[in-house]
Amino acid sequence: MDGGDMPPRRFFCRKGEEIMSAKLIKGAEVAKEIRAELKEEVQRIKEKYGVEPGLVTILVGENPASQSYVRAKQKAAHDLGFYSVQDNQPADISEEALLALIDKYNKDPKIDGILIQLPLPKHINENKVLYAIDPGKDVDAFHPFNVGKLMIGQPDYLPCTPAGIQELLIRSGTETSGAEVVVVGRSNIVGKPIAVMMMQKGPGANATVTVCHTRTKDVQFHTKRADILIVAAGVTEYVKGDWIKPGAVVIDVGVNEVGRTADGKRILKGDVAFDEAKEVASAITPVPGGVGPMTITMLMKNTVRACKVHNNIKE
Ligand SMILES: NC(=O)C1=CN([C@@H]2O[C@H](COP(=O)(O)OP(=O)(O)OC[C@H]3O[C@@H](n4cnc5c(N)ncnc54)[C@H](OP(=O)(O)O)[C@@H]3O)[C@@H](O)[C@H]2O)C=CC1
Ligand SMILES: Nc1nc(=O)c2c([nH]1)NC[C@@H]1CN(c3ccc(C(=O)N[C@@H](CCC(=O)O)C(=O)O)cc3)C=[N+]21
């Protein structure tokens, strides 16, 4: 059925009013609120204990997208009053030298959090590098120790993008308990950890989770059943409007550069065909301004937490 001659489908809420368009889940605004709270906390910690959260972001090479993300992280850290260090290394740095650099920051008492921007150049073994970070300074939560703790439901740090998604679900009042959650993507940084988090016990979770990937036989079959659909495939506008169950909540994690404006600004699109999806979903995150700013905010939150742990601050 292609529905070519059919009038557009119409949906009605309980009061009988037509639902025209989904509610926007504005990650950028939520991120701003949380950052304001964090800023006060950082100020208080500084005054009371004389310490400030320290974050180093290590960037290897000159990938323009990575440069722009790292800049955004540095700006956020600076705005919150962190001690922040930007460490740029050439693309041809040896694995050994990078490991030595990590060791230096592991031992630096001013540094609470270490972030190594991914992806790394091919000659460097990513796993080896992630293993080298002190798990107590692993504010990305990518170290196998932290991944394991997440898996058994006892995380010290939550991975930033999944934590941002969960926070958006909670703050938008989305019922997750008993919900059918479908995740498209199984990467270690988004798909797999968000799937684990949504199936755990607790607030913003208790869902029944399905994970799709490139070997999934019929992705649409699954997405159409989702009460909450989380898309992290890295494919521009992959999920169409008619793949979505009417009234579903859609979280679009994709950040795909589709071009540049005349003045060089990145033009971004998500993994969901937004204009179609917003007519079907009850709520949806935009790109930009959705999950992305939340990721950075959760990184800041993890760094404040690390600072408190390292300085034995219990409040
Ligand atoms: N907003 C934010 O803060 C962040 C945004 N991102 C964005 O999210 C997206 C995903 O990132 P990331 O998880 O790192 O990406 P990866 O490329 O590591 O993983 C993509 C996943 O999607 C699956 N996939 C790809 N194409 C399809 C398809 N056609 N059908 C079904 N599954 C598919 C892949 O399956 P398989 O495993 O079989 O290959 C893989 O598991 C990107 O656009 C990225 O830029 C990422 C991190 C943070
Ligand atoms: N060690 C590591 N940790 C990461 O968390 C990590 C990483 N490596 N490598 C790459 C991905 C990608 N990622 C994003 C973060 C913020 C936005 C973001 O803020 N996006 C803005 C737009 C930004 C822009 O204009 O370019 C938005 O969606 O509104 C996007 C993507 C973190 N990642």
Strand order of the largest sheet: 1-11-8-7-5-6
Return the CATH topology of the largest domain: Rossmann fold
- Would you identify the CATH H-level superfamily of the largest domain? NAD(P)-binding Rossmann-like Domain
Rg measurement, Å = 21 Å
Separation of the first and last Cα atoms: 59 Å
Which CATH architecture of the largest domain would you pick?
A: 3-Layer(aba) Sandwich
- Tell me the count of domains: 2
Small-molecule binders here are: NADPH dihydro-nicotinamide-adenine-dinucleotide phosphate, 5,10-Methenyltetrahydrofolate
Structural class: alpha/beta
Q: How many β-strand runs?
A: 11
Average predicted confidence as pLDDT: 95
Number of helical segments with 4 or more residues:
10
Portion of residues within helices:
25-40%
CATH class of the largest domain, please? Alpha Beta
The dominant shape is globular
Beta-strand proportion:
15-25%
As residue ranges, the low-confidence spans are none
Domain Tetrahydrofolate dehydrogenase/cyclohydrolase catalytic: 25-140
Family: Belongs to the tetrahydrofolate dehydrogenase/cyclohydrolase family.
GO molecular function: methenyltetrahydrofolate cyclohydrolase activity; methylenetetrahydrofolate dehydrogenase (NADP+) activity
Protein name: Bifunctional protein FolD
Note down, in words, how this protein is organized.
One of its GO terms (molecular function) is methylenetetrahydrofolate dehydrogenase (NADP+) activity. This is Bifunctional protein FolD. Catalyzes the oxidation of 5,10-methylenetetrahydrofolate to 5,10-methenyltetrahydrofolate and then the hydrolysis of 5,10-methenyltetrahydrofolate to 10-formyltetrahydrofolate. It comes from Desulfacinum hydrothermale DSM 13146. Pfam families: THF_DHG_CYH, THF_DHG_CYH_C. This protein has 315 residues and is an alpha/beta fold. It folds into 2 domains: 93 residues, Leucine Dehydrogenase, chain A, domain 1 (Rossmann fold, 3-Layer(aba) Sandwich); 136 residues, Rossmann fold, CATH 3.40.50. A 6-stranded parallel sheet has the order 1-11-8-7-5-6. Strands 3-2-4 form a 3-stranded parallel sheet, sandwiched between helices. It has a two-stranded antiparallel sheet with strand order 9-10. Strand 5, helix 7 and strand 6 form a beta-alpha-beta unit. Helix 2 crosses helix 10 and helix 6 packs across helix 7. The radius of gyration is 21 Å and the shape is globular. The model has no long low-confidence stretch (mean pLDDT 95). The chain binds NADPH dihydro-nicotinamide-adenine-dinucleotide phosphate and 5,10-Methenyltetrahydrofolate. NADPH dihydro-nicotinamide-adenine-dinucleotide phosphate binds next to helix 10.
